[in-house]
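Exercise 7. Predict the joint structure of the components listed below.
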Amino acid sequence: MKAHVYVMPKRTVLDPQGQTIHSALKKMQYKGICEVRQGKYFQIVLEPGLEVSAAREEVERIAREVLTNPVIEEFSYRLED
Amino acid sequence: MKAHVYVMPKRTVLDPQGQTIHSALKKMQYKGICEVRQGKYFQIVLEPGLEVSAAREEVERIAREVLTNPVIEEFSYRLED
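Solution:
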C-alpha cells in the first residue's frame, strides 16, 4: 500500500515560494495564471499486509507529528492499494 | 480551474530527503514503513473561463519548462474544476 501526503502552507500564511514562481511565470509570458502555491509531496510505501485502518492511523500520525509544522502548514493524504 | 502538479525525483535518482525522513521515522519507532520519497507539490489556480485543452497545454508547459528539472525529476498533474 502507498500513501500520498500533501503538505501545504496554511491559507492564512504567506507563501513566498509560490509568489516567486507566480511572478516569474508572469514575466515569462505564461498566460492565465491567477495564483501559485507550493507545498511538499511525500510518497510513503507501507509494508504489505497492513490493514487499511492501521495504515490510515500510522500515516496520519506521521503526517501530523513529523511531516507538517502545525503552526504554518496543513496536510491531506490519500491511500492507494 | 485548479491544477495540481506533482514533481518527484526520478526513480533512478537518489532521494536524500526521503531517505533521511525514512531513517528518522525508523529511529522514532514508527512501524510499517518501507520507503519514503519526497517531492514538490504545486497548486496553480487558472483564470476562470479557460478551456480544458488550453489549460492542459499551459500547465504541461509550465510543469515541463519551469517547475521540473528534467535531468533528475519527473512530473505528473491533474486538473480540477
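Discussion. Chain A touches chain B at residues 6-8, 18, 21, 24-25, 28, 30-47, 50, 54-55, 58, 61-62, 66-67 (CB under 8 Å).
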